[in-house]
Design a protein that fits this description.
182 residues; five-stranded parallel β-sheet; alpha/beta; seven-stranded mixed β-sheet
């Protein structure tokens, strides 16, 4: 059991005073003014966090093979999940649960990057291979499976661009009327 695992399972007082420094030294990189609420890291050494970052209560960062790179000035609301990999589904000759990690293909795990100045809403899920452009916003409950352009606001399942944040790009925004929703 690592020191991180021990403190994670310990009482509230030990967690409060020891967990933040342990997380900081366990991460692949950690900037200044990073605020951690209680959450979970998987593959903590593959996670890099910039400065002025806030991770909301109940976050889950899964980075066992690929990296999660969080730039500066990023906010995660409660319940955000980031996953850098998935399982092989192409081996039909045996149950998927029996496929080992060593049998994974390179395309099964890809980095997730937040370029900075991002806001990720409550319970959003960001999946492997996604780059969230600078200044982009992900709405609550969104499932992001593709690149998010800079300064876009995305939402839905799967997430799509709802509109652009900047006035200059308003002509590029997408507006969906209620009667156009399938």
């Amino acid at each position: 059991m690592t020191l991180y695992d021990f403190v994670k399972k310990s009482s509230g007082a030990i967690y409060k005073y020891l967990m933040s420094p342990i997380i900081r030294v366990s991460l692949g990189k950690c900037g200044r003014r990073v605020r951690f609420s209680k959450g979970r890291f998987y593959g903590i050494q593959n996670i890099e966090i910039g400065s002025n970052v806030s991770l909301g209560e109940g976050f889950r960062l899964f980075a066992t093979r690929a990296k999660i790179i969080i730039g500066d000035d990023v906010m995660f609301a409660p319940g955000v999940t980031v996953v850098t990999g998935d399982h092989r589904t192409d081996m039909l000759d045996r149950p998927m649960i029996t496929v080992t990690d060593s049998e994974k293909l390179p395309e099964n795990d890809k980095d997730v990057v937040f370029e900075g100045d991002n806001w990720v809403g409550a319970n959003a899920i960001i999946l492997k291979g996604v780059t969230v452009g600078k200044g982009a916003v992900i709405s609550a409950g969104a499932v992001v499976t593709h690149e998010v352009p800079p300064y876009a606001i995305v939402g839905g399942v799967p997430a799509k661009v709802i509109r652009m944040r900047s006035e200059k790009n308003k002509e590029k925004s997408v507006h969906i009327e209620a009667d156009e929703i399938p």
